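User: Thanks for the earlier help. One more: Ribosomal RNA small subunit methyltransferase H. Can you show the sequence and predicted structure together?

Assistant: Of course, both are below.
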Amino acid sequence: MSEYHIPVLLNESLDGLAIRPDGIYVDVTFGGGGHSREILNRLDDKGHLFVFDQDEDAVQNLWGDDRMTLINSNFRYITRWMKYYNVDSKIDGILADLGVSSYQFDNPQRGFSYRFDEALDMRMNQKQTLTAADVLNEYDVQHLQEMFSQYGEITNAKTLAQQIVQARTGRRIETTGQLVSVAEAVLRGHKMQYLSQLFQALRIEINDEMNALKDMLKGAEEVLKPGGRLSVISYHSLEDRLVKRFFKSGNFEGEPETDFFGKRSVGWKVITKNPIEADVEEQARNPRSRSGKLRVAEKAAGSRGQGAGKTKG
């Protein structure tokens, strides 16, 4: 297997799952298979692992193992697929390593990085039609501003949006190099950080990452058995905030729902009071791990997916 993706917080994320050798597990972000391989190492012949990846390039990293089933789909559909395989409400643990794989970042043709001057693509699923170039050339200034502000947390989002709209009047912005050139005219602060925030905002928008994450988290609560665990590694504050709130309250607003008598309904037992981060040694070995934050929670009995409160997928 080529070095498609170096697994971040490998032992910490898998230890958080408290893997049972005969259990059923799901890696919703297969990528290069680093986490999946270690999960399989901890399973016996009765255990099984389902892996999700919407990127068809990830298929090249599969290896022969009857205990593993690949699902070439977005992880937001986890409920649908687990019902298809008749394992909903039977899952012992789920792992999610969010963001873009090392392979995707380092492959110029995918357009995820400002380090290369290539076509603006950024699609994780190559079958979808919307690309980064489409967004930059077709969104109006207000839509661009909202995207840069919300998903990139860019302080001068309005100025950047106006600059892009002005630049595209002459010709379409088609390459990462063109986008960098446009952004350089208005960037604030550290160049690499600014461009990272810009490219992050585009990637999140094109792949609908925030809504997909919400769907996956809600689906995970449905398909996990009581006592099953969910390990999530996030790489920016937007993802981490969603995960933290969901584990705390069962929703994305951060306040637990209450019944008629004022009793709080919380579907998770938080295992990691504070997020786990990579140590200095791992950060030096794998720079991508520097921004990684791991949160682990355990599904409580009586939460969604059990009994009368079960939601339909």
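User: Great, one quick takeaway?

Assistant: The first helix runs from residue 10 to 17.
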